[in-house]
Design a protein that fits this description.
- The protein is mainly α.
- The chain has 14 helices and no strands.
- The protein is globular.
- It starts with a helix and ends with a helix.
């Protein structure tokens, strides 16, 4: 097993654990600024965890600074749009839209990175997206897609998807220019600084401390997982196509479901059809690698 494949598998496992940690943090569809404060802590703690490893690395050139800064801005706006969408919209309508990142990345990677759109890859992504819509309780995929045209929170979620996908393309395009650890740590510090600036301007920065005091252990664990998962993404996309790496991460949903069944005694039977579609889609994607 090569390092990129190991990194991809590790990222999938970490994101599954992150979803369980988020359950301990409670409902994310609460106060907008409280969610923003939690987002700041996630990125800041992630950056802080990566910092000791980053400062020991040598920097061969500084060409990565501009793409890192641009990507960080895109992720900042993406997170802002995501939090706004979840806080103001109908969760069963807007949440499944986030799964469209696989489709957007498929086309972005073909246009900007020269990655091929194959039949097996396309079919795998379609099955995974449809399966996620079922798992997240969407009435029909068509209903959520129509909502993008007229529902403000749904539009914000789709904007979040496009912004994040653009950031991923930049990360992939400049893989030869950066050390993954340095890049990840710096990007996370920039994103957390952007969130802090916004909270400070709105005089809501006190929510950062109160949010941390409320759930300190999940915040630390979640932030550490989040930072490590992004680092492993950067390692994986150095050698594996972005249009394969990013959609395959959706397999973390299946692992999170299994863990939730063990920890929270959640029922799995009603989620089985969607889960099987995600697994089948993942199998087709892996076969196209």
């Amino acid at each position: 097993m090569g390092l990129p494949v190991f990194a991809l598998i590790t990222r999938i496992l970490l994101l599954a654990l992150e979803k369980i940690v988020l359950k301990f943090m409670g409902d994310r569809a609460g106060n907008f600024y409280k969610n923003l404060a939690a987002s700041f802590l996630f990125f800041f703690i992630g950056a802080f965890i990566l910092l000791p490893f980053a400062i020991t690395r040598e920097i061969d050139n500084w060409h990565f600074l501009l793409p890192c800064f641009i990507s960080a801005l895109l992720y900042s706006f993406s997170s802002f749009a995501y939090v706004s969408s979840i806080a103001t919209g109908e969760v069963s309508l807007v949440a499944p839209i986030s799964s469209l990142n696989a489709v957007v990345i498929l086309f972005f990677a073909a246009i900007f990175l020269g990655e091929k759109i194959t039949l097996m890859k396309s079919l795998g992504i379609i099955l995974m997206v449809y399966g996620i819509f079922i798992l997240k309780g969407a009435a029909t995929p068509i209903k959520s897609l129509k909502a993008i045209l007229k529902d403000r929170p749904s539009q914000l979620m789709f904007a979040s998807v496009v912004l994040q996908s653009t950031g991923r393309v930049i990360d992939k395009f400049f893989t030869s220019e950066y050390d993954p650890i340095i890049y990840a740590a710096l990007l996370y510090f920039i994103v957390s600084f952007n969130f802090f600036t916004l909270l400070r301007l709105k005089k809501k920065d006190r929510l950062i401390l109160s949010s941390f005091k409320e759930k300190p252990i999940p915040m630390v664990i979640g932030g550490a997982i989040n930072g490590a998962a992004y680092l492993f993404l950067l390692v994986a996309i150095k050698s594996i196509e972005l249009s394969i790496v990013e959609p395959l991460v959706n397999l973390s949903i299946i692992l999170a479901m299994a863990l939730a069944a063990l920890i929270f005694r959640e029922k799995l039977l009603e989620k089985l059809p969607g889960g099987l579609l995600v697994i089948l889609g993942g199998w087709l994607l892996a076969g196209s690698a």
